[in-house]
Amino acid sequence: MRVNVPCSIKLSLYAQFKLILVIISFGAINPAFSQQVVFDYDGNTYTIGDYGDQSWTLQNYRCTSYADGTPIPEFNGTQSEWAALTTGAYTHVNNDSTNDEIYGLLYNGYAVKGVHDNDASTPNKVFAPEGYQIPSAEQYVSLGAWLADNGFNFTSSVNAYTSAAALAAGEWESSNAPGSPGKSLDTNGMALNTSGFGWYATGWRDNIGFELMGKYGPHWTRTAADWDASEDWSYTVGINWENARVFLNGWTNNVGFPVRLVQDKICEEYNNGSVFNESVRYASAIDCWTNIDADGDGRSWGAGRGQAGTFGTDVSFVSSSYWVISQTSGTVLYPDNWLISPAIDLSSYLPSDSLTLEYNVTGRTKDYSQEHYYGLPGSG
């Protein structure tokens, strides 16, 4: 396929979709630890660390207000009352406010989504301060890819994100698993927190109580779980005491987890004159594309989950409309989802230049032969 575009695109595309293909470029790798400070509404400060094109808070969030100053209620009731909440709330780790400085607060999924009342006509609140956001699952994938590319993995593979020990900080349950936070500094272990990210084993709060502190450290993402059109579930990204890998899991809104914030500058770096190649490795690149759910089913394009649906496998664009919903219901769907890339200025090229666009396509499953896609180069 030959079109007037300057080089290669590699794409792995699942399910029926429409896609306008234009080349993207990435900016130069930034050094980590070029730290700044950001303030929340309550006046708390957070140190910022740069990881490639992303700037992350290096402490868990502990603000008791939404971005506009509306209070997020503190929860002091029973476990069953916590599980029955339908609006945003926070709690202290182990109900002890002295934990806030290190572990941050545990927010339920409603708080993360800005659900502050039960009136469906009321707009949800913005959770994060201006300029920052709750990370998407794709932004965590991009963080994992940057760590892998820059020597923070326990294993040599850049596609299996085994950076748990490099991310972890504080006390973790002992483990014999090589490269895990619980194996740190032992034979086949790693020094903790070499990345400076400071990921603690906070555990979580659910209908049973406070669970697995010292063993698990999940963080909320803003990404709704693909299988759940009601958005009662969202993805978390976490590490645990006995594994070198970073994991992606789905949880309901009535569980309490910590939150980190991110500022992603990758979209600012697209048209900077570097080599035009989009491998989708830094999955948050999808945030720079226009993502249209034309069929209105609440599910459109994502990136970074791979064919097995796991965190840290080969990064691809994923059309979740067919991929997950049909797994659970057995329904054949006909998604109409558009993913439109940013425009690239080709004015420096001559009409006589021979420019080639190349891309790869894969189906989600060999058992669905009706899978189709369209690739539409566009201009204007």
How is this structure best described in words?
Helices cover 11% and strands 18% of the residues. It contains 7 helices and 17 strands. It has helices at residues 79-84, 100-103, 109-113, 137-149, 164-167, 320-323, 325-329, and strands at residues 18-20, 36-39, 45-51, 54-57, 90-92, 105-107, 204-205, 210-211, 216-224, 233-240, 247-252, 262-264, 290-293, 301-303, 317-319, 337-340, 374-375. Strand 3 (45-51) and strand 4 form a beta hairpin. The relative contact order is 0.23. Residues 1-31, 271-276, 305-310 and 323-330 have low confidence and may be disordered.
Give the topology.
Elements: E1 18-20, E2 36-39, E3 45-51, E4 54-57, H1 79-84, E5 90-92, H2 100-103, E6 105-107, H3 109-113, H4 137-149, H5 164-167, E7 204-205, E8 210-211, E9 216-224, E10 233-240, E11 247-252, E12 262-264, E13 290-293, E14 301-303, E15 317-319, H6 320-323, H7 325-329, E16 337-340, E17 374-375
Parallel strand pairs: 1-16, 1-17
Antiparallel strand pairs: 2-3, 3-4, 4-12, 5-6, 7-8, 9-10, 10-11, 13-16, 14-15
